[in-house]
Design brief:
Number of helices: 2
Shape: rod-shaped
Strand content: under 5%
Structural class: mainly alpha
Number of strands: 0
Largest sheet: none
Oligomer: single chain
Helix content: over 70%
Order of helices and strands: HH
């Protein structure tokens, strides 16, 4: 009988020392918030990378157009018989 009471007392003590439902809910809310922030940071990083890639593409096009314009001007200024 003593052993049974000792086991039941130990179980009750362990249960009482565990986190309450309120503490578990607070921990879950914290973890959910952290996950949401990480997801938002990931999406922001992807958006930034896409913007940088688009800007690089536009810069490349602009440079190519400018180079073609300069080549065209140079070709027009070169005398016809002497390349």
């Amino acid at each position: 009988m003593r052993k049974l009471l000792l086991v039941m007392g130990s179980v009750a003590l362990l249960y009482a020392c565990g986190p309450s439902a309120e503490q578990q809910a607070a921990e879950k809310a914290t973890q959910d918030s952290i996950a949401a922030v990480k997801e938002q940071a990931k999406m922001d990083s992807i958006a930034t990378i896409e913007a940088v890639k688009e800007q690089a593409k536009q810069d490349s096009i602009t440079a190519a157009v400018e180079q073609a314009k300069q080549d065209s001007i140079a070709a027009a200024e070169t005398p016809k018989g002497k390349k």
